[in-house]
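seq:
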Amino acid sequence: MIVTVRTTTDARAKADALARGAVEARLVACAQISGPVTSVYHWQGAIETTEEWEVVFKTTEARYPALEAHLLAVHDYETPEILATRVTRVGEEYARWVERETSAAQEIEGPAHDERPFFVYGTLRPGAYNHDRFLAGRIGTEADAVLHGAVLYDGPGYPYVVPADGGRVVGTLLTPAPGAYGELFGLLDRLELPVGYERVAMDVVRVRDSARVSAWVFLAAPDAPLGAVIESGDWFSRP
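struct:
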């Protein structure tokens, strides 16, 4: 069954990132962007009017759950619009193309033998909106940490780290709960790699004891949509 899935966002660059990320992850066969459109809606007791861009994805019903999870992970809205509609009539060749493109997803490689912790610096940090959504029950310990030799950039919805002399990035070192490493490793790769990140092993400094710890860090891929530099190196202290 072919389905169309709609979402909206408040910037063209964000719409481009949502479309490209879903296509690259083989969650959809294609995505179409239109706008700007004017949205009028109730929010927190008031009527809001906002200029938005709409993204329409073409996928299969079997791939919808993974697409929904992906959009919830990467969208910067607290409650994003995600509307799926079953297509009752579709050209036979087009339907086969959608099914073929969305069934070609590559399996994520399994975890390395050395089970490194993860250094997170954006929406997965404790207190940020994706932490409890994706990490609850999977984390054993959390510790404040700093990555030296890198600069933090804002982006459409989430931040990116780029190696650079003299910079520093504030974040959290996450150690998976016993038995949860493989699950967490795969989950974070599925969340991060399709939307402009690449996973690299780097040394970070744990704040409480100044120990150097080798951790997985998701750095900006070469084509990541970088915004302005966050001078503080702390996403929670961005302007």
